[in-house]
Design brief:
With 736 residues, this protein is an alpha+beta fold. Helix content is 20%, strand content 29%. The strands form 9 sheets. Strands 1, 3, 4, 6, 7, 8, 9, 10, 11, 12 and 13 form an 11-stranded mixed β-sheet that branches. A 7-stranded antiparallel β-sheet has the order 27-24-39-28-29-31-32, with no helix packed on it. β14 and β15 form a beta hairpin. The longest helix is centred in the N-terminal third of the chain and has 26 residues. The N terminus is likely disordered.
Amino acid sequence: MKNKFVFDFVVVLGIAVTLLFVSDLRADVRLPEIFASDMVLQREMKVPVWGWAEAGEKVTVSFEGQTVATETGNDGRWSVQLEPLKAGGPFTLTVKGKNEVKLENVLVGEVWLCSGQSNMEWTMSRSTEYNDELPKVENPKIRLFQVAKAWNQTTQDKLSASWKLCNAENIPNFSAVGYYFGQKLNADLDIPVGLINSSWGGTRIEPWTPPVGFQALPTLSHIADEVAAKNPETELHKTLVTKTLAEYKNWIETSEKNLAETKMITPPPTFPGQLAPYTNQQQPTVLYNAMIHPFVPLALRGAIWYQGEANMSEGMVYAEKMKALIQGWRTVFNNPDLGFYYVQLAPFVYGGDSTRLAYLWEAQAAVEKSLPKTGMAVINDLVTNIKDIHPPRKKPVGQRLALLALNRTYGKTDIVAASPELEKMEIDGSNVVLHFTNAKELKTRDEKNPDWFEIAGADGVYRKAEASISGVTITLKNNEVEKPYAVRFAWDQTAEPNVQNEAGFQLGAFRAGEIPERGTFDTLVPEGKNFKLLYSFDPTKPVLTDNNQRLVYKTDKSREIVGNIKRVGYFLSLKPKNGNEQFVFVILPPLDPNLAKLGVPTKSSAARFQKQVSDVTVFSNVSGVETGTFADGCNVEFWDSNYAAPNTGSIAGASDQTFDFGDQITPAVSPGYGSMQIHNFAKKQTIFAFNNFSAGNGCDIGIGNNTVSNGNPDWTFSKSAQNYSGGQLMIFVETE
């Protein structure tokens, strides 16, 4: 009995001590990991300092003659703000509550965030210059903060990282681009520099972007809605959950009733995908939540960014996503002047369409023209191996970023930091004259003639141009192009061009001019003036590649169009060998938000639609094609495979014996014959049809019904393209 008393007393005493210890822990003032000894605080800017303590606890922050006090809120968080500081140090920062925290060896200077994917993550030890640089890295005025990789569905307060001194022990695993950027700033400004490296190889831009960034751009509202739907704090999430719960409750009640009445129950409602949590580090906001938010709203001067390979095929949409990232970071860090300097991707053999990378270069170049305090470093001269996606020469990359920052953020306007930029294009007979800014003189780095220039006439075919430099102008000519309309430069993923300005900054890829393509359309259908051209080609001579899996368009603007698709329009014009030009323009709601699926349905595009559509408008000059707007009674048959006559689509009035507006798709055969048809089945009409894509001028094509005796109304097996001298199929979109 006595032993039990002793045992119970010891247990109670242990619990009491434990509770006292836990209570003390909860009472302790705590700082986020970004506030630690050896850190750098931002100069000449108000400096937020924050942390956690027991609710209602008084907290005092002291630093360099400033003392600021506050009281912890009910959520356990406290925050104060130091007035702008002068560069210098080392100093001590003290935080007092029920306990005292002292941060030693704190410097005041410039703080920059380094972020992106693998080329920013690329470490010093893997860079070409490492062995030469290692003996010189010891620098007490540069501090390093390496953020460990993590992702999360919701915003986090904690991360795994610590401030370290810049020396031979700590530098090998730090970002090479980040280090060389900071080294250049430190040398030129002669003040301390703090570098925060938060990067992750292979990641897209969306996960680094805060929700407010997506919300700021109407063109990305679909991503903003996706993020909001998964956030338990938003009204959208609450609405969706309420609706889902009601559906499940109704199902449970109905199922219980059926069970009691010995009836079959139906499957439960499908869980809405909008509410499903994210599953990996590539999804919107999840890296911001775990690798950026834990040090928001730290006072920063700016950020450098090296990313884009993971978004390489997106073209101008990527520019919108960069704007979301920049404006999002400027918002969460409470710094509308936050500098943002980034690297244009290096040439690399990605495979596939060799112009895909050029469209991304164009998108990257557009950002610095639309947002202040931004700038792009062109590095198309720094590649040592065109098949290496990680150019190992990182020192000039970091230095070019630093020069941009020195020029545009620190006001050193005497520094040349930018690449040449096209100012205007002039047509002079059969010549094109290009005028450039950001240059006193243009030259080539190898003393050869300027390379990678192309010129195009009305046919839209780009041909290699002879180029000559005179001061800050370049004149282009090709004897096969009598009347030039457009030019492009370095428009290929392997382009390592030689044109630069007098300071050695490279000319980046660009396009200028416009091929006159819309003339016929704008004349015949003035109602389509608000539509943007997406694709065009001659359907009487279609070009398929990759074993008939992909169609090559004459014009492909899919990488230039941004915004949500409101409507899609299909314009077909045909020139009979005997007779006047025929045309039809059909407007309908988009079949899919993916632009690739709005074009010709090939295996590559993965477009496959057999559906009825509403709100269809038709314009045409072909007799027998009903024009006007139709609320219903229309359908589409888009697929890349074979098909048969039976009306398995259950389209009213369709035949089981002939190919018309209700046919049986054979999805297993792909790529097969192929169908791109829009019908007004209520009027028993084919509005237009384009079938058998791989047959060239033997394909099936027509506007209205095929009226040949015993023919199929949808032109199947007609080989009718041979009846036309040419044609044009143009696909347009209207955005909002």
